[in-house]
Amino acid sequence: MIVVFVIAFFVLVDLLVLGIVFWFHLLNAFILGLIIALMVLIVGLGALFSAMTITIDEKRISWNFAFGLLKRSLQLSQIASCRTLETPWYHGWGIGRIPGGRYYRISGGSGVEMQLEDGSALRLGSDEPGKLLSALQRAKAS
Questions:
Q1: 109 and 129 in contact (C-beta within 8 Å)?
Q2: Burial 124-135 (b: 16+ CB within 10 A, else e)
């Protein structure tokens, strides 16, 4: 459901900007093209980071953003420990760095942090961090 709202928001913002641009038709073609290209980029990034899928099998955890893009995976044997946590808003959304590791997050602040065998950390955002943590613990135990 969040996907629909995110995409609708970006489309409405783009339509508003386009309306303003065409209303002020005194802008030259280069600036108009630049604005349209920027709007297409914003909608594309909004669609790309509108959903994230996390799958766990007997050997690995995998995650990817919308449309199967930016797919990453990790062997379960590389995970030393994991816990649920709240990520501060200022860490942002999408893909980013945290002290000692990386995060992958769509919305909200909840998620699961995994401490890896090499000492680094990996955080995956989730609307249901408890279920994700349980599934990880079950998969590691088997």
A1: no
A2: bbbeebeebbeb
83: exposed, middle or buried (C-beta count within 10 Å: 0-12, 13-18, 19+)?
A: exposed
Structure pTM?
Answer: 0.68
78, pLDDT greater than 90: yes
Per the DSSP assignment, residues forming a β-bridge with 81 are: 115
User: Nearest Cα to 121, choosing from 53, 139, 91, 135?
Assistant: 91
More confident residue, 124 or 12: 124
Dist. CA 70–CA 50, nearest whole Å: 13
Shortest CA distance to 132 belongs to which of 110, 117, 115? Answer: 110
Q: Which residues on neighbouring strands pair with residue 86, listed in sequence order?
A: 110
Pairing of β 72-75 and β 79-86 = unpaired
